Amino acid sequence: MAAYLSRLHHISLHVSNVDKVAHELVSRFQFNVFAARLTDRAKQLALRRGSAVFVVNERPSEAPRRLNERQDLNCLYGAHAHYPVDTVSNVCFEVEDVQRASAALRDRGLCEFLQPPTEVADDSGRVTFSIIRSPVGNVCHTLIDRSRYQGLFLPGFHQVRTDSETAGRSQCPITHFDHITYACPRSSTAHITRWYRDTFGFQRFFIDRNEDVDEGYVLNHNGIGLRLTAMEYWKCSESGITLPFKDEQEPDCKFVIAESLPQQGRNQVDTFLDQHRGAGIQHIGLYTEDIVRTAQTLSLSGVQFFSPPPAYYTEVGKQDEIVAAGHDPHALSQYGILLDTDIHTDTDSQRYLLQVFTKPIFREDTFFLELIERRGATGFGEGNIRALWRSVQAYMENEERHETERENKQSTPS
């Protein structure tokens, strides 16, 4: 039996400089620090915007020298984080019963446990958690039961009050995590989707109505070599789990697997695998109720966005499509926002979504964020996928060219 998930609780980043990354998320992306855990060996900061919660952990600069150091270096509720680059490596889920879920997974031999069921407590109650390794690079999953906990976040964390708790909220209406995208090696998708199906009961989500069941959604022409396969889990509202933050309805979060196809040469997925030293989380979609206002607010705070080719906004029919959806093409082009329409033939209703990618937030060209606004559309938009791909690809190629020029200058005798 699969270990069915109740909800996505938080996503953990493991970075060499916690304060720097947390400052970026607060000052530029308008997140709020609301809880912290500080010890002699660990620093963990919890930040939120709506129900989207990041926990930023300080990764050790070197591996533990003795086995008994392992737990000391671990961040609470996360696996040992010795990794050569900054990374997003833990997606934490709530489950109804950690002991039962862990026993079911162990009996079936479906996964490797990095931490067996463990109980922690403070004055606000008790929490049980376990950690398992996923089939995607360094990504692991913490399973957590906080039904007996009444505190703000988790045992071991203390509340942090900031003056910016409500500042800018109306200008930056980010509410939850919309999707998580993995960058994976070629021919690994089938194994990954089976693992999530058997382990957590994930179901296939079809990005396009004409998508092949086995092949996924494939773009393999005009310089784009990409395979996308999406999954989703049962919506949490059916489980009866109480949310840690009041007055919030539990959204659905999809998981997307991206792998490159060899026919079109090396691309941004290959770049991620090289710079990240393996498969991992490439980007996370943040849902916003008003993408134009959010992009404007973040841009003024210093966030940089990928821009599609200028011709995108002048393509035949695109301007009419944007106007028909009630948007101004010029306003969207200011921030590189893309719009894709999904017309449902059964109802003739027009549904659409808007998306934009940020530039990478780590030193390496690995992890970045996405803003997404949905107006009835549940997929990702074929036209948007192509335009986003080209905008990221152009940036990656430009960065590689600059890096080559820098290396050539350093190797040339003065």
Automatic annotation (TrEMBL):
<dbReference type="InterPro" id="IPR037523">
    <property type="entry name" value="VOC_core"/>
</dbReference>
<dbReference type="GO" id="GO:0009072">
    <property type="term" value="P:aromatic amino acid metabolic process"/>
</dbReference>
<comment type="similarity">
    <text>Belongs to the 4HPPD family.</text>
</comment>
<feature type="domain" description="VOC">
    <location>
        <begin position="176"/>
        <end position="359"/>
    </location>
</feature>
<dbReference type="GO" id="GO:0046872">
    <property type="term" value="F:metal ion binding"/>
</dbReference>
<keyword id="KW-0408">Iron</keyword>
<dbReference type="Pfam" id="PF00903">
    <property type="entry name" value="Glyoxalase"/>
</dbReference>
<dbReference type="GO" id="GO:0003868">
    <property type="term" value="F:4-hydroxyphenylpyruvate dioxygenase activity"/>
</dbReference>
<feature type="domain" description="VOC">
    <location>
        <begin position="7"/>
        <end position="146"/>
    </location>
</feature>
<dbReference type="InterPro" id="IPR005956">
    <property type="entry name" value="4OHPhenylPyrv_dOase"/>
</dbReference>
<feature type="binding site">
    <location>
        <position position="179"/>
    </location>
    <ligand>
        <name>Fe cation</name>
    </ligand>
</feature>
<dbReference type="InterPro" id="IPR004360">
    <property type="entry name" value="Glyas_Fos-R_dOase_dom"/>
</dbReference>
<feature type="binding site">
    <location>
        <position position="370"/>
    </location>
    <ligand>
        <name>Fe cation</name>
    </ligand>
</feature>
<protein>
    <recommendedName>
        <fullName>4-hydroxyphenylpyruvate dioxygenase</fullName>
    </recommendedName>
</protein>
<dbReference type="InterPro" id="IPR029068">
    <property type="entry name" value="Glyas_Bleomycin-R_OHBP_Dase"/>
</dbReference>
<feature type="binding site">
    <location>
        <position position="283"/>
    </location>
    <ligand>
        <name>Fe cation</name>
    </ligand>
</feature>
<keyword id="KW-0677">Repeat</keyword>
<dbReference type="InterPro" id="IPR041736">
    <property type="entry name" value="4OHPhenylPyrv_dOase_N"/>
</dbReference>
<dbReference type="InterPro" id="IPR041735">
    <property type="entry name" value="4OHPhenylPyrv_dOase_C"/>
</dbReference>
<keyword id="KW-0479">Metal-binding</keyword>
<comment type="function">
    <text>Catalyzes the conversion of 4-hydroxyphenylpyruvic acid to homogentisic acid, one of the steps in tyrosine catabolism.</text>
</comment>
